Amino acid sequence: MISKRTSNQKLCNVKHAKGNILIKKELLNKYSNFKEIFKGESNNFDGVVNVNKIIPELKNINLDKLNVEQIKKLANLIFENHHPTNKFINNKNIIIVTKSGINESIEKIYYNHNQRYFLKEHMKVFSDLGDIIEHATLINQVIEKKNRKKYNSWHYYFDCLRIGNCFYYLEFEIVSMDNGENHYRIQRLKLKEKNR
């Protein structure tokens, strides 16, 4: 959950490990939630990543008949089949996609009515996640607020995707960890309105 910075917090108090995505003052707490991100960034974003519209792993599969564990396995299989590595570079920062990150994302998608509506599109995103990560724009940053010792900051990225004949906005989260790694976590899709 994104939360606003209190006035007494200072940027210089942010701890970093070597390899973490650095906090930019102008992006710190720019948005308070993902709805604000979609509203604020949708009008300003021109880039488009083309996502494969045909994924062999989805052929003859009815996603509505799969439970969350089966969907997690399928999402991980799609990612592994379409990526030779799980490390990607965005603006000189290494971002790692792990099985636990994909599983967490699927949990959030599966149990959210609005996101589950786009489940097939989300599965297609996993086939091109590396390219998406490498081309996405960092648009918001937040310091870890829940005192989870292994995390120090959260970074929110935004991209526009073409999947088949439709355009979508994608927001995804990266967490910078105390060990210096940056891990992919959660993604959300929104159908781009035709007049934008």
Protein architecture, described:
By secondary structure, this protein is of the alpha+beta class. The chain contains six helices and seven strands. Helix content is 28%, strand content 27%. It has helices spanning 34-41, 68-82, 99-110, 113-116, 119-127, 129-135; strands at residues 49-51, 87-90, 93-96, 137-143, 151-163, 166-177, 182-191. β4 and β5 form a beta hairpin. The strands form two sheets. Strands 1, 4, 5, 6 and 7 form a five-stranded mixed beta sheet that branches. Strands 2-3 form a two-stranded antiparallel ribbon. It is globular, with a radius of gyration of 17 Å.
Properties at a glance:
five-stranded mixed beta sheet; 196 residues; two-stranded antiparallel sheet; globular; alpha+beta; 6 helices
The low-confidence runs, each spanning 5 or more residues with pLDDT under 50, are 3-8
Tally of contiguous helical segments: 6
Oligomeric grouping of the chains: single chain
The helix-strand sequence is HEHEEHHHHEEEE
Mean pLDDT: 89
Structural class of the helix and strand makeup?
Answer: alpha+beta
Helix content: 25-40%
Strand fraction equals: 25-35%
Per-chain topology:
Layout (H helix, E strand, L loop, with lengths): L33 H8 L7 E3 L16 H15 L4 E4 L2 E4 L2 H12 L2 H4 L2 H9 L1 H7 L1 E7 L7 E13 L2 E12 L4 E10 L5
Helix pairs in contact: 2-3, 2-5
Give a short synopsis of this structure.
This protein has 196 residues and is α+β, with helices and mostly antiparallel strands. 28% of the residues lie in helices and 27% in strands.
